[in-house]
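Forwarding these from the shared drive since the link keeps breaking.
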Amino acid sequence: MKLYQNIVVLIVIFAFCGDVGNLINSVWTGQEMRSQNSGLLLPGAHAIWGHVAKLVAKTLVRSVSRTGKKITKNKRPRIKGTHEDEQSRKQKDQDRANENTCEPGWLKYKGSCYFFSKNSNTWINAERECRQKSSNLVKIESASENIWIKRQAEVTHDQRWIGAREVHGQWEWVSDLSPLTFTSWAVNEPNNAKENCAHIHKVISYNWNDIKCSKRFNFICEKSTVSLKERIK
């Protein structure tokens, strides 16, 4: 800043002594400075010119040097949002890890995972297979869940065991031994003809029917969803 001030002072001095244009022209061409009116060389012009030239040179060098430093510092422009994008990606990965999902081969509906078997078995053995998968034969608790299960069963057009069974004249769910609070029995079912297990059947629009537990049908297992983080443990 001080160098610029010195140059300004010198320019003002030359403005009183002669032609500022000659001063500037002299800086660029190196010609001797002469009075505009007399054409005579101004007193001390050589000394002043030398001083001015040095000041200008130093100023230009410093200016270029500073500019160069700024360019060097900024030659790798910062990409805006890089840190924020990385944080956002990590948050999404964490959310996915915490999101409740189902294992491959299982279907998700609300907070449960459902497995529709491709093999048939007796009711008791179907329940055993479900337990081997950390689940139980399906417990149907609402009309919406029942409709969803019907739609899945319609795809394969087969009969399937569900988790309802009769014990001492009372129907209960095998998963927690709780009584049936929601039912979707077919007309005139259950008929209590020594048929103690429940299944769904295409012929009766996939409504429930009681039948002998020794019959062999495909089956539906159910268990709660778990997070990916928990499944990896």
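-- next protein --
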Amino acid sequence: MVANCQTFYYVLRGETCTSIAAKLRISAQQIIAWNPNARLDCTLLFADYFACVGLA
């Protein structure tokens, strides 16, 4: 997760970068950029963890 993250989202089971992005009206590419540990294909974005979805 990037150091200047300001907004967090609790990932639910079954959600993907694409579904979260659509729900929050941001791009999947932004989620991937702000959560580099999730990998480029978003396979390491896990349920029951927080993801960065907005910067300061």
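The mean pLDDT is 94. The beta strands are 5-10, 50-55.

- D.
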